[in-house]
Specification:
With 425 residues, this protein is an alpha/beta fold. 29% of the residues lie in helices and 24% in strands. The structure holds ligand LLP.
C-alpha cells in the first residue's frame, strides 16, 4: 500500500501538498511553528455522530474518553453534540465540567480514585462511579454518607476476555489490575445494594484499547449480559450498561470495524439487557483526526543508519517509544523525484528510545522538510511532557476550512510556573 492510499478522510494531497479539510498543513507550520498538533473537527464530528447513530436505539450516551485528547476546544465542541465524558481523575472531572459537559453525562473509572476525587464527583452529581474494588466501594459508601447522598454505582467487571491488542493496553484479562472478576463483582453488588448510601444502577466493562475486531466485544458483552440476569435474579435492577471504549483505528494496515459494525455485532445482547447503553470511545473519535507536524533539522548518515533528526520527540509523541507503535509519516510537500530510502526518524531527546519511526521506507527527507505524523490525535498531546525541558507543542483545530489556535505553544515561563525558589538561592 502506498502511504497516500492510507490517508485518513480528513487529509488529502492537492498539487503535491498535504491538506487537512482544504487547509494547507505547510501554512499552519509556517504560522504556528513546529512541532504542532493539528486536528480536524470535521473528522471528530463525523466519528461522534457515527457512534450516536449506530447505537441510537439504545438511548446511547457517548461518554468521550477525555484521556485520549483533553483539549478544551474539542471537549466543548463534543459537549455541544451531546457527548458525555469518561473520566479517570479529578483533573478530568474539572476539565469535563469546565467544557460544559453536564455532570449527569459523566462516568468515572479508575482503580485508584481518592477520597477527594470521589467527593468532587459526588458534589457535581455524576452519572456513574465505575467501581473497581471492594475497598473502593466501601470508601465511596462512606464519602457518600458524609455528604448525605447516594452514590450511583456500576461495578467494573473484568470478563477475562483477550482483546488481542498490545499487552500494555489490554485491560479485560483476568491478570490485569482492572475491575473485578464475575464472582467478586456479584459480591460487590450485594454489598452495594445493602448499603444505604450506594445505588447499584449500572454495570461496566472496558476490555482494552486499539481492538481491531468485534469478536472480543461480543464475548465481553455476552458475559456481562449473564451477570445482569443474575443480578436481576437477586433483585438488583441494572439500568445502565457501559461497554467501555476500545475500538481501534488505522495506523498501518489495520482494518478496524466502524461503530455501525460494532453495534450490529453486539446488538442482540444490548437489546436483551434492556439497559440504556453507555460507550466510552476515545481513540476512535480523535485518533485519525490528528497529525503532528515536525520539521527536519538534520540528516545524518552513520555506517549503519540514515538518521532523520526532526524537531518532535518522544516528549511530544510517546507512543513509538513506549509501545513500539507505528505511526504513518508523510512529506507535507516536495517529495516528488526523491529516491525511496530507509530512515530512522528520531527526535532531539537524549535517549536511544527517542524515535518516531524505525526502518521507515520513504522518499528521502532533507533538512528543512516538513513531515506529518499521522493518527496522532489520540494519546499524542495527552501523553506529552516537558522531558529535557522541551516546550510542549501548540494545538490547532481546523473546522470547515478555517484553522484556529486551540492551545498556544508553551514558553520558558510556563516551565517555572510551579517551582518555588527562595530569593537568595
Ligand atoms: N474507558 C476506559 C475505562 C479506559 O481505560 C479507556 C482507555 C477508554 C475508555 C478509552 O479507550 P479507547 O477508546 O481510547 O481505546 N495510551 C495508550 C492507550 C491507553 C488507553 C487507556 N484506557 C495508547 O496510546 O495506545
Amino acid at each position: 500500500m502506498t502511504p497516500e492510499a492510507a490517508l485518513p478522510r480528513c487529509l488529502r494531497f492537492r498539487g503535491g501538498k498535504l491538506e487537512m479539510e482544504g487547509v494547507a498543513l505547510a501554512s499552519l507550520a509556517e504560522k504556528y511553528g513546529t512541532p504542532l498538533y493539528v486536528y480536524s473537527w470535521g473528522d471528530v464530528r463525523r466519528r461522534i455522530a457515527s457512534y450516536q447513530e449506530a447505537f441510537a436505539e439504545f438511548g446511547v450516551l457517548v461518554a468521550y474518553a477525555v484521556k485520549a485528547n483533553p483539549n478544551l476546544c474539542l471537549l466543548r465542541r463534543a459537549a455541544a453534540m451531546g457527548c458525555g465524558a469518561d473520566i479517570v481523575s479529578g483533573g478530568e472531572l474539572d476539565r469535563a465540567l469546565r467544557a460544559g459537559i453536564s455532570a449527569e453525562r459523566i462516568v468515572f473509572a479508575g482503580v485508584g480514585k481518592s477520597r477527594t476525587e470521589m467527593a468532587a464527583a459526588l458534589r457535581a452529581g455524576i452519572r456513574l462511579f465505575n467501581v473497581e474494588s471492594i475497598p473502593e466501594l466501601e470508601l465511596l459508601g462512606s464519602v457518600a454518607k458524609e455528604y448525605g447522598t447516594k452514590a450511583p454505582v456500576a461495578v467494573r467487571v473484568n470478563p477475562d476476555v483477550d482483546p488481542r491488542t498490545h499487552a500494555y493496553v489490554a485491560t479485560g484479562k483476568k491478570e490485569s489490575k482492572f475491575g473485578l472478576d464475575i464472582r467478586a463483582a456479584i459480591e460487590a453488588y450485594r454489598a452495594a445494594s445493602a448499603h444505604p448510601n450506594l445505588d447499584p444502577i449500572g454495570i461496566h466493562c472496558h476490555i482494552g484499547s486499539q481492538i481491531t475486531s468485534t469478536g472480543p466485544f461480543v464475548k465481553a458483552v455476552e458475559k456481562i449480559g449473564r451477570v445482569i440476569r443474575e443480578l436481576r435474579g437477586l433483585g438488583i435492577e441494572i439500568r445502565f450498561l457501559d461497554i467501555g471504549g476500545g475500538l481501534g483505528i488505522r495506523y498501518q494496515d489495520e482494518t478496524p470495524p466502524a461503530p455501525a459494525e460494532l453495534a450490529a455485532a453486539v446488538k442482540p445482547f444490548l437489546k436483551a439487557s434492556e439497559c440504556r447503553v453507555i460507550l466510552e470511545p476515545g481513540r476512535s473519535i480523535v485518533g485519525e483526526a490528528g497529525v503532528l507536524l515536525t520539521r527536519v533539522h538534520y540528516v545524518k548518515q552513520t555506517p549503519i543508519h540514515r538518521y532523520v533528526i526532526v524537531d518532535a520527540a518522544m516528549n511530544d509523541l510517546l507512543r513509538p517509544a513506549l509501545y513500539g507503535a507505528y505511526h504513518p509519516i508523510w512529506h507535507v510537500e516536495g517529495k516528488e523525484g526523491r529516491p525511496e530510502t530507509t530512515c530512522e526518524i528520531v527526535g532531539p531527546v537524549c535517549e536511544t528510545g527517542d524515535f518516531l519511526a524505525k526502518g521507515r521506507v520513504m522518499p528521502l527527507p532533507v533538512a528543512g522538510d516538513l513531515l506529518a505524523v499521522g493518527s496522532a490525535g489520540a494519546y499524542g498531546m495527552a501523553m506529552s511532557s516537558n522531558y529535557n525541558m522541551r516546550l510542549r507543542p501548540a494545538e490547532v483545530v481546523v473546522d470547515g476550512g478555517q484553522a484556529s489556535l486551540a492551545r498556544r505553544r508553551e514558553t520558558f515561563e510556563d516551565l517555572y510556573r510551579c517551582e518555588e525558589v527562595a530569593e537568595d538561592e
